[in-house]
Write a structure and sequence with these properties.
binds pyridoxal-5'-phosphate, binds 2-OXO-4-methylpentanoic acid, alpha+beta, 9-stranded antiparallel sheet, globular, 7 helices, 8-stranded mixed sheet, single chain
């Protein structure tokens, strides 16, 4: 019941909402797709997703704007990325137009769950697709299910904008020619041990380095990195094994076009990190979460921005991006899809 939700105290968790979208792929085609109230899925014991983890997903948000509208941020880019993810796992593409329609239907059907403007919460949407028919030899499924559910969420990291402490992980997130650049469930399964270990040691997140040379910064388990140099330049790692974050791509545009900042998207060596002024994690769930300290096997790198607040440029980026998403600042053409 949406009426009972304490919007301002929501964490990043699952709250069951009223409707979700389902479409099935069989005999080479997607069906019409419907909204359903049934939150459960019944699968054969040998379904491709259960045996060989054939599943990809997306994450995007719907917002209540200052003038009371419900909007969604760049769903076309999530649709495109899901096509890329599906192709890499030998799954059929879910058509972009249908994806955007389904997003709109799910949000509209669950409008009561879109948190009020100013509450700090948003409606997180989780599109996903999985192999649903029995597969016992290692091969792609021939039947798939695409679904979108939504859940109201608060900040991904407890403490909201309090700077995070992260560790340089000894585990690898992605292989050089592997699946790091797509949003496959398997990437997250293999990060679970690393994140549990980091949490046990008192860290908020892991910084993964490139697995081939372990000299370059890649990303965290669920967000890309964004750094700011002491002379105010925004620097973000470029790598073929990180997820092409829609938030990062949007922030690069915001930095250049709204804030007039210089931006470098390039390989970032871990050795350079000690010289940066600010560091943030960017993603749909993370928005921009500031990093205050990075620990490399006991050696601490303390960002000059400190442990109590966001750095000034990170803050400007955060305020401009969330301003665009919440309708306080005019958005670039095509970024905001109005739902109702
Ligand atoms: N990197 C990883 C591994 C992620 O899971 C996510 C979340 O989707 C991101 C980066 C950020 O991507 P986006 O900004 O598109 O949400
Ligand atoms: C997102 O930001 O949408 C993600 O999928 C990250 C996930 C780890 C929650």
């Amino acid at each position: 019941m949406a009426q009972n939700i304490d919007w301002s105290n929501l964490g990043f968790g699952y709250v069951q909402t009223d409707y979700r979208y389902v479409s099935n792929f069989k005999d080479g085609a997607w069906d019409e797709g419907v909204l359903t109230q049934d939150a459960n899925i019944v699968l054969n014991e040998c379904a491709g997703v259960l045996q060989y983890a054939q599943t990809v997903f997306e994450g995007l948000k719907a917002y209540r704007t200052q003038d009371g509208k419900i909007v969604c941020f760049r769903p076309d880019l999530n649709a495109d990325r899901m096509v890329d993810s599906a192709k890499r796992l030998e799954m059929p593409a879910f058509p972009k137009e249908k994806f955007i329609e389904a997003v709109k239907k799910v949000v509209a059907a669950n409008a009561d769950f879109v948190p009020p403007y100013g509450s700090g919460a948003t409606l997180y949407l989780r599109p996903y697709m999985f192999g649903s028919n029995p597969v016992i030899g290692v091969k792609p499924a021939s039947e798939y299910q695409f679904r979108i559910f939504c859940t109201p969420v608060g900040p991904y990291f407890k403490g909201g904008v309090k700077p995070l402490t992260i560790k340089v992980s000894d585990f690898d997130r992605a292989a050089p020619n592997g699946t790091g650049h797509i949003k496959a469930g398997l990437n997250y399964a293999m990060s679970l041990h690393a994140i549990v270990t980091a949490h046990e040691e008192g860290f908020d997140e892991n910084m993964y380095l490139d697995s081939k040379t372990r000299t370059k910064v890649e990303e965290t388990g669920g967000a890309n990195f964004l750094f700011v140099t002491k002379d105010g330049k925004v620097v973000t790692p470029k790598s073929s094994s990180i997820l092409p974050s829609i938030t990062r791509r949007s922030l690069i545009y915001v930095a250049k076009e709204y804030l007039g900042l210089e931006v470098e998207e390039r390989e970032v060596y871990f050795d350079e990190v000690k010289d940066f002024a600010e560091c943030g994690l960017c993603g749909t769930a993370a928005v921009i979460s500031p990093v205050g300290k990075i620990v490399d096997h006991g050696k601490e790198i303390c960002l000059p921005s400190g442990m109590s607040d966001m750095g000034p440029i990170t803050k400007k980026l955060y305020e401009t991006l969330t301003g665009i998403q919440m309708g306080r600042i005019e958005a670039p053409e095509g970024w905001i899809q109005v739902i109702e």
